Amino acid sequence: MFRRAFWFTAGAAAGVWATTKVNRQLKKLTPESLAAQAADKAVEAGHRLKDFALDVRAGMTQREDELNDALGLHQDPDRPDNVTALPGPRRLRAIQNDQTDHRPKLSYNRNEDH
Question: Are 84 and 71 in contact (CB under 8 A)?
Answer without folding.
Answer: no
